[in-house]
Design brief:
With about 575 residues, the chain is an alpha+beta fold. The protein has three domains: about 240 residues, BirA Bifunctional Protein, domain 2 (2-Layer Sandwich), CATH 3.30.930; about 120 residues, YbaK protein (Alpha-Beta Complex), CATH 3.90.960.10; about 110 residues, Rossmann fold. It has twelve helices and 29 strands. The strands form seven sheets. Strands 3, 7, 8, 9, 10, 11, 12, 21 and 24 form a nine-stranded mixed sheet that branches. Strands 16-14-15-17-20 form a five-stranded mixed sheet, with no helix packed on it. α1 crosses α8. The longest helix is centred in the first third of the chain and has 21 residues. The model has no long low-confidence stretch (mean pLDDT about 95). The protein binds adenosine-5'-triphosphate and magnesium ion (MG). The site of magnesium ion (MG) has 3 residues, from β21.
């Protein structure tokens, strides 16, 4: 291909709304163009990149034994009612009113795949089945961000597995999991599988595949010592040695008018000469459980609450009868269940609200002045917390989620009467499912962030995703000189050798050509110049390891092919 055919016109200026380097690069290089917030077109260069990502995913999932299919994006609302997700996913669903009824633009495809597959799953002999698709998803994301990173319309590679029992489901899960690792390696991404939270998809065991990135919206905790890794929504800190409570101190009440909340309480207490720090204040937060009962959660004042599953923060009405801003665990009525993070055992005494507006208590002791019904991990993990497996120090890594795998179990099949098969003994049983997703259109942004320059004006794509593996540029090319003739010849023979290649053929200066080619990001450049041709050589630049070699004209194709092979094998 030639640059003139690619409608390639790079942007001279920094796009205004682009904050992330990857976003700038993809806009400047004319890979994508925004239609509206969170909705993008893929221009020819970007589409080549995307197709490469899709091809890698297809090859690895086919190899894993999954069959590709295509499910509808337009789905009748009834199938979303049947699983109850019409409510659970209400905040992101796009609805469409048609003449014949109401529809949902699929944000994910569990409902649709069950409808498509169930008629073919009659008996245990029909299982296992592994399928996947590359399909557009629609999610009304409140915050579309960083170009392709978070969009309202995006392509996902979503897979589904159907099995007879838990063990069989686990073995299908493993197939997808292994395929994911192979896919991310070929994409040039170091994706870490971390234990994760199942969210609205449901199910039990699940992993997120996270790529460390400064523009990530997620964090995962990892232990360098034993390899434990978990998303911070799912991560737990290990236990610490409990300390003995201080039997010498006595709780003392201080008047602290207009000092609700931890920060102002500390200021008020310190003003009274009390020696107290934020980590020594007890945070008491009122939650409501699934049965609408009040639960008091206790944690140190300097930690953030990770609201337990099935619970929510109490609203103002539910706070009636509690001294909002001054709540403490002491003297609570038995109808309030008191939950505490294990960290509450690590201080001899605590400062806390007094349960009366305008005063705080200092010197409250666990087991003496207040009691706890149950200890449970309640805090969001932080850098330096002990690992739950080995006790070494955890560290937090900012990251982007590129994939997610779930063992769904019977979450869907239990509620859908047609999601059944006949077992060996003839019994009708719900099948065991798994579901798996890769953010296909998110991948180019993540790869660009990883392999692009910090200011978003150049990139070296990993070999297998590069829109063009080789770029050819002539220095001092005119319409009919030798530079052009040799460039044309190389273009034809490199392409014949099976590598994707683009040649600069526009009437632009070498400076402009080079700058644009840096945006196209081929890992291999061939620079054909009159001066080197006089010596019978062409300059070949391998940009991943930054090697430049002069190659005799007749050996250029062979050298380029060998370099391509070498780079491909490095990525697997
Ligand atoms: P996130 O936490 O990033 O919102 P999610 O957990 O809601 O993602 P899943 O339902 O697990 O997403 O979808 C599988 C994959 O699809 C994700 O790992 C991610 O790579 C991709 N993805 C999800 N939402 C978007 C989006 N709005 N734009 C682009 N890709 C997305
Ligand atoms: Mg997810």
């Amino acid at each position: 291909m030639r640059t003139s055919e690619l409608v390639f016109k790079s942007l001279r200026e920094t796009p205004q709304d682009a904050e992330a380097a990857s976003h700038k690069l993809l806009l400047r290089g004319n890979y994508i163009r925004r239609l509206t917030s969170g909705v993008y077109s893929f221009l020819p260069l970007g589409y080549r990149l995307l197709r490469n990502v899709e091809r890698i995913i297809e090859e690895e999932l086919d190899r894993a034994g999954a069959a590709e299919l295509l499910l509808p994006a337009l789905q009748p609302v009834e199938i979303w009612r049947a699983t109850g997700r019409i409510d659970k996913m209400a905040d992101v669903l796009f609805g469409v009113e048609g003449k014949s009824g109401s529809f949902v633009l699929g944000p994910t495809h569990e409902e649709a795949v069950i409808e498509a597959m169930s008629p073919d799953i009659e008996s245990y002999r029909d299982l296992p089945k592994l399928v996947y698709q590359l399909q557009t998803k629609f999610r009304d994301e409140p915050r579309a961000r960083f170009g392709l990173m978070r969009t309202r319309e995006f392509i996902m590679a979503d897979g589904y597995s159907f099995d007879v029992d838990r063990d069989a489901m686990r073995s299908s899960y493993q197939k997808f999991y292994d395929a994911y690792l192979a896919i991310f390696a070929r994409l040039g991404l170091q994706a870490e599988p971390v234990e994760a939270d199942a969210g609205s998809i449901g199910g039990d065991v699940n992993h997120e595949f996270m790529v460390a990135s400064t523009i990530g919206e997620d964090h995962f905790a990892c232990c360098a010592s034993c390899g434990y890794q978990a998303n911070i929504e799912a991560a737990r800190a290990g236990d610490r040695e409990p300390v003995k409570v201080d039997l010498e101190v006595e709780p003392k009440t201080y008047s602290t008018p207009n000092a609700p909340g931890i920060e102002s309480a500390i200021a008020a207490l310190q003003a009274l000469g009390v020696d107290v720090e934020i980590g020594g204040m007890l945070k008491s937060m009122l939650l409501i459980d699934e049965a609408d009962r009040p639960v008091l959660a206790l944690l140190p004042g300097d930690r953030t609450l990770n609201v337990p599953h099935g619970m929510r923060l109490a609203d103002d009405t539910q706070m009636a009868g509690f001294a909002k801003g001054y709540i403490g665990p002491q003297g609570q009525s038995p109808r309030v269940q008191v939950l505490a993070d294990p960290l509450v055992r690590t201080r001899p005494s605590w400062a806390s609200g007094s349960n009366e507006h305008g005063s705080h208590v200092v010197g409250l002791r666990l087991g003496v002045d207040f009691s706890v019904d149950r200890f449970e991990n309640l805090v969001v993990v932080e850098d330096g917390d002990p690992c739950p497996r080995c006790g070494a120090s955890l560290s937090l890594v900012r990251s982007v989620e590129v994939g997610h795998t779930f063992q769904l179990g019977l979450t869907y099949s239990a509620v859908l009467p047609h999601a059944r098969f006949h077992s060996v003994s003839g019994e009708e049983l719900p099948y065991w499912m798994g579901c798996y997703g890769i953010g296909v259109t998110r991948v180019p942004a993540v790869v660009a962030q990883q392999y692009g320059s910090p200011d978003g004006d150049a990139v070296v794509w990993p070999l297998e995703v590069a829109p063009f593996v080789v770029s050819i540029v002539g220095v001092g090319a005119t319409k009919d000189n030798e530079v052009t003739a040799i460039s044309e010849r190389l273009h034809a023979s490199i392409s014949e050798a099976g590598l994707s290649v683009i040649m600069e053929d526009r009437n632009v200066s070498v400076g402009v050509a080079m700058r644009d080619l840096e945006l196209i990001g081929s890992p291999i450049f061939c620079i054909v110049g009159a001066r080197s041709l006089a010596k019978g050589v062409v300059e070949v630049r391998e940009r991943i390891h930054d090697r430049t070699i002069e190659v005799a004209l007749e050996g250029v194709v062979e050298t380029v092919v060998a370099l391509g092979r070498e780079l491909a094998s490095e990525r697997r």
